[in-house]
Specification:
This protein is mainly α and 117 residues long. Helix content is 76%, strand content 5%. The chain contains five helices and two strands; from the N terminus they run αβαααβα. Strands 1-2 form a two-stranded antiparallel sheet. α1 packs across α5. The longest helix has 25 residues. It is globular and about 40 Å long. The termini are close together.
Amino acid sequence: MNSLFVKMIAGITGLAIAVYILAPGATYDHNWLTLILAGAALGLLLYFVRPLLYLITLPLRIITFNLFSFVIIMLLVWIVDCLFSTHLEFQGLKNIFFASLIVWAVDLLLGKLLKQN
């Protein structure tokens, strides 16, 4: 079940968990509305842009045994970081990597949990 609602909830939850865990390397303006809007934007990117990027980068994903798909998620988190740069900031590539890992895991878990029901 990959609905828009699930992707937005995954984006909001994943970004909130990432900011909480990566506290010194990920800062926000301590306004929950910022995390909700940034997570919703990430969910929209996950729903609309990620399938297009998956299609465009199919040869790279085949060569790298689908590891390049993680680079795509990192790109989407970086885009959200750039869009909300005054309110939300990940310092360094390492923090974007770990935030992408958390968002990917939350998206995977929500997708599996909601597919069973």
